């Protein structure tokens, strides 16, 4: 049999043998040969063994092949043969012992005559397309040691009488469509070592004869429809190494006798209806490696062997096990994977787990574990997967996080707080990170961009703030990055990943911007400015002595901290609400009834009078003369207050009319006389019931005075924060004040005047409680509308200032007044200042209100000093309106005229039943 030449034609094979002409064995396995088997083969009369496996032979199987008188072994597995196995192939066999036709495309019935080939010792017809029932005499093959018919489409019941196969060692009928019950006498095949009947439709109970299979090492009955208990006698199958009963309908308890199976390596009982506890005795199975009892109805506690035996992989997921997870100290555990998910475990996560140095995967998700995450767990060197999703964990993510093998970290759906530690960047192997549905705050650490393997990141539904680190766009493998429902702001990082990120992954971050989000980015990140409340050091005016130097210093130091904290002032109720509101209020003809007509004739200029060689002009008549000289009247005793633009004094005109006089402190910056007069006259024309009327002015190059109507009731700031309870404001009064302010601002905006300097001390109350807004439009008197000057002028306006003042590139529009109005409205309803300084903390009013809204506890933040009751159906929408007005993005804030309309709707909910402002 040397020099064997093989010619492979398309249609036939020709074998030219050596001189003797007698070929006993032919093995051409894995040569990549193709073609069909021709009759030429039959000339090799002495052939005993033929193996053509792993080629690409196709076509039918020659019927006569089995007739070769000496052929004992035929292996045609893993080719492309098709068609039915010919009749007579087995019926005429002579010496055939080992036949494998596995892994072809044979179809038709399992050959009817297979039982006639009594010499067969092994028959492998697996992975074909054979159908029909098993021939009833198949069990008569009593020389047969292995039968493999797995992976076909064989139907019908298993024939009776399998115990006739007294030589059978291995029976594999896996993945067919066999029905009926297990043969009762299956345990009477004395040599049976391996039984695989998995993935069929076999029903009924386990036959008791099985207990006699004491040499059986492998029993797989998984994925059938078996019912009943697993009897105690299963412990008699002493050689079992694998017991797989998963995916059946077994019920009752798992027998403790399994603990006696000393050779057992794999125990798979998942997906049944087992009840009761997981036996402690299983710890006695000294060889056990793999245990899967998931998807049952097991109760009781976790047996100690899970963390204290040679077991390497354990899953008890989807049961109702409860109690604490106990891990013995210094456990000599070998465990590599533990899945305790979807049970009812409670208590803390034992930090002793970190002593199990072999642990690679720990899944404790969907339990009721509480407490914090033990710092030692997140730094375990071997740990690759940690899943603690959906528990009741609190505290923060330990800063020790840094396990170098960790690929997957899932901490979603807990109550974790605090910041994402920057050390997360040390998780160099991390591919998947899920921290969603927690209460995490702070910024996304830039170090995340160090984790080059990162593929999926879910940080959604937290309270993260700040911008996205630019370096994120360098992550090469990123597939998913969900940051939706946070309070992030600024630009999406550049780069193709973020250009194509689905909107749903970034939505509900009111401060995020970019083309993707249809909102253009300001050049500078918009942050609300929270400025120093006590600073009177106006850089443009005389420095004034500070009563308490220490306090002054302290507050200056905290400005940067305040700005940072202010970044948290973002809106969550936001855009949706306002869209709804916008839609509702666009009804024409409902302009404020209180609006006064302006007539040109109203402004009549009275004769100019020379007071100290200056120019005094009074609008609309009135005796222009002061009762005292200008200098005398502007003394401390008459001082009413100070603001960014000057000091206000009270005096009376000659005719007895009281007026408030504002001495502008910014003289050196004031425009030329002409421009000054033009602007002041503009302001003088603005008559409105809710505006403090400007009655006239006085001009000299070195002194400018503005003459206002005197409003008797003091300012709102005093009323809200400094007055006694006896002097409190009712809900209606507060509502009226809010509405009054809104109307006055709408009026100003209609005349293209921006107030610029809203705050509660600029809102005066007249004798009847009407709000009158003062100090409007004064910024226009400055030579240029310089942002720096503006913010320094109004820097006492702590917390009222819109974030765009901090951004050079954002145009300042009347929307900055809307912001101030929003803060004012909240202040009036809650009685709290926009920003409150605590010992070592700053409380931002908008945040307090938003949190109360989120929790449905608005009533708790309404001013306790409010007189009488208040209607919640008004309080909630006004609070929401206030928050919408304080949106970070100016375009998200409504117009003042819309605000007026909304307020009127809120006031009379019964008149407009379709409004849904709650
Ligand atoms: C096997 O043969 C068929 C034709 O009979 C051919 O289409 C197929 O590509 C071949 N496969 C391999 C792996 O050679
Ligand atoms: C049957 O043949 C397949 C494919 O060659 C092989 O994987 C399987 O182990 C064989 N079965 C037995 C029982 O030897
Ligand atoms: C399994 O057998 C039951 C009857 O024992 C039958 O109702 C069911 O349709 C079968 N399922 C399949 C997938 O053949
Ligand atoms: C655990 O092991 C450590 C060191 O291996 C030892 O110091 C300690 O005493 C052990 N604890 C117990 C309870 O055995
Ligand atoms: C942990 O278990 C849960 C529930 O059984 C499963 O959905 C999740 O995929 C598992 N986690 C990991 C990382 O495999
Ligand atoms: C987040 O905190 C708020 C209150 O601070 C609480 O109501 C909410 O349930 C928390 N969310 C989570 C997911 O823990
Ligand atoms: C990780 O990120 C930080 C800040 O982004 C950077 O300073 C550091 O060099 C990075 N480390 C590595 C190993 O890339």
Automatic annotation (TrEMBL):
Main location per the UniProt record: membrane
InterPro entries the UniProt entry points to: Kinase-like_dom_sf, Leu-rich_rpt, Leu-rich_rpt_typical-subtyp, LRR_dom_sf, Plant_LRR-RLKs, Prot_kinase_dom, Protein_kinase_ATP_BS, Ser-Thr/Tyr_kinase_cat_dom
Residue ranges of the TM segments: 556-581
Keywords: ATP-binding, Cell membrane, Glycoprotein, Kinase, Leucine-rich repeat, Membrane, Nucleotide-binding, Receptor, Repeat, Serine/threonine-protein kinase, Signal, Transferase, Transmembrane, Transmembrane helix
CDD domains, per the entry: STKc_IRAK
Every Protein kinase domain range: 634-906
SMART domains, per database record: LRR_TYP
Annotated signal sequence range: 1-19
Chain sites annotated for binding ATP: 663
GO MF terms held by the record: ATP binding; protein serine/threonine kinase activity; receptor serine/threonine kinase binding
GO cellular component: plasma membrane
UniProt name for this protein: non-specific serine/threonine protein kinase
Species whose genome carries this gene: Oryza barthii
């Amino acid at each position: 049999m040397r020099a064997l030449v093989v010619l492979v034609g398309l249609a036939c094979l020709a074998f030219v043998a050596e001189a003797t002409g007698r070929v006993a064995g032919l093995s051409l396995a894995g040569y990549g040969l193709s073609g069909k088997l021709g009759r030429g083969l039959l000339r090799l009369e002495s052939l005993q063994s033929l193996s053509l496996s792993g080629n690409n032979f196709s076509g039918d199987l020659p019927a006569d092949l089995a007739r070769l008188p000496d052929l004992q072994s035929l292996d045609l597995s893993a080719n492309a043969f098709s068609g039915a196995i010919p009749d007579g192939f087995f019926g005429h066999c002579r010496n055939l012992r080992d036949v494998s036709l596995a892994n072809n495309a044979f179809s038709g019935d399992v050959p009817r005559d297979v039982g006639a080939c009594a010499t067969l010792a092994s028959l492998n017809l697996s992975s074909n397309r054979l159908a029909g029932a098993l021939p009833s005499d198949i069990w008569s093959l009593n020389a047969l040691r292995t039968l493999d018919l797995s992976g076909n489409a064989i139907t019908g019941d298993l024939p009776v009488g399998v115990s006739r196969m007294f030589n059978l060692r291995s029976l594999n009928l896996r993945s067919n469509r066999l029905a009926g019950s297990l043969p009762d006498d299956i345990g009477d095949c004395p040599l049976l070592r391996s039984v695989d009947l998995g993935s069929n439709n076999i029903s009924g109970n386990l036959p008791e004869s099985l207990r006699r299979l004491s040499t059986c090492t492998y029993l797989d009955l998984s994925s059938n429809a078996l019912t009943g208990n697993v009897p105690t006698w299963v412990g008699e199958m002493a050689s079992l190494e694998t017991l797989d009963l998963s995916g059946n309908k077994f019920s009752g308890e798992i027998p403790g006798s399994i603990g006696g199976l000393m050779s057992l390596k794999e125990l798979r009982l998942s997906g049944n209806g087992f009840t009761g506890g997981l036996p402690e005795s299983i710890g006695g199975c000294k060889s056990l490696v793999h245990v899967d009892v998931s998807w049952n109805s097991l109760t009781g506690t976790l047996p100690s062997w899970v963390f204290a035996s040679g077991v390497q992989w354990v899953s008890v997921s989807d049961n109702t096990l409860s109690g604490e997870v106990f891990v013995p100290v210094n456990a000599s555990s070998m465990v590599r994977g533990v899945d305790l998910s979807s049970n009812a475990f409670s208590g803390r996560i034992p930090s002793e787990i970190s002593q199990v140095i072999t642990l690679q995967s720990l899944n404790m998700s969907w339990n009721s574990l509480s407490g914090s995450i033990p710092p030692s767990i997140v730094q375990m060197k071997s740990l690759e997967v940690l899943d603690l999703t959906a528990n009741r964990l609190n505290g923060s993510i330990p800063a020790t996080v840094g396990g170098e093998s960790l690929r997957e970290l899932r901490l979603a759906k807990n109550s974790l707080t605090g910041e994402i530690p920057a050390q997360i960047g040390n998780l160099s192997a991390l591919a998947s990170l899920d921290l969603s549905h927690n209460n995490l705050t702070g910024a996304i650490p830039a170090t995340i961009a160090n984790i080059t393997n990162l593929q999926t990141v879910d940080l959604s539904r937290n309270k993260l703030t700040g911008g996205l680190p630019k370096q994120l766009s360098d992550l090469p493998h990123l597939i998913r990055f969900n940051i939706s429902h946070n309070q992030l702001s600024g630009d999406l990082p550049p780069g193709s990943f973020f250009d194509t990120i689905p909107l749903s992954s970034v939505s509900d971050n009111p401060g995020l911007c970019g083309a993707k989000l249809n909102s253009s980015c300001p050049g500078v990140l918009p942050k609300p400015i929270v400025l120093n409340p006590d600073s009177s050091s106006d850089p443009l005016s005389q420095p004034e002595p500070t009563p308490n130097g220490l306090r002054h210093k302290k507050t200056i130091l905290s400005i940067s901290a305040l700005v940072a904290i202010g970044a948290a002032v973002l809106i969550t109720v936001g855009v949706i609400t306002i869209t709804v509101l916008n839609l509702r209020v666009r009804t024409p003809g409902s302009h404020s009834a209180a609006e006064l007509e302006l007539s040109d004739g109203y402004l009549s200029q009275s004769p100019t009078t020379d007071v100290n060689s200056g120019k005094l002009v009074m609008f609309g008549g009135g005796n222009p003369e002061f009762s005292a000289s200008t200098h005398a009247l502007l003394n401390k005793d008459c001082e009413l207050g100070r603001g960014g633009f000057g000091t206000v004094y009270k005096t009376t005109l000659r005719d007895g009319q009281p007026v408030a006089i504002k001495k502008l402190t910014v003289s050196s910056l004031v425009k030329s006389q002409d421009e000054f007069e033009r602007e002041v006259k503009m302001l003088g024309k603005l008559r409105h019931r809710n505006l403090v009327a400007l009655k006239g002015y006085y001009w000299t190059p070195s002194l400018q005075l503005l003459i206002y109507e005197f409003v008797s009731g003091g300012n709102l700031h005093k009323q809200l924060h400094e007055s006694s309870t006896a002097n409190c404001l009712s809900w209606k009064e507060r509502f009226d004040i809010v509405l009054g302010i809104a109307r006055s601002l709408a009026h100003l905006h209609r005349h293209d005047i921006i107030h610029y300097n809203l705050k509660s001390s600029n809102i005066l109350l007249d004798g009847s409680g009407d709000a009158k807004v003062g100090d409007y439009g004064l910024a226009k008197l400055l030579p240029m509308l310089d942002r720096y000057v503006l913010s320094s002028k109004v820097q006492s306006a702590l917390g009222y200032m819109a974030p765009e003042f901090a951004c050079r590139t954002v145009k300042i529009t009347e929307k900055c007044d809307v912001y101030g109005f929003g803060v004012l409205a909240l202040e009036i309803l809650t009685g709290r200042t926009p920003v409150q300084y605590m010992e070592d903390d700053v409380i931002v009013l908008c945040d307090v209100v938003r949190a109360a809204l989120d929790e449905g506890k608005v009533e708790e933040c309404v001013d306790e000093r409010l007189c009488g009751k208040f209607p919640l159906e008004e309080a909630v929408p006004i609070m929401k309106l206030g928050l919408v007005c304080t949106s970070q993005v100016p375009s998200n804030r409504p117009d003042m005229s819309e605000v007026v309309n909304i307020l009127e709707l809120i006031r009379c909910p019964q008149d407009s039943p379709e409004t849904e402002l709650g």
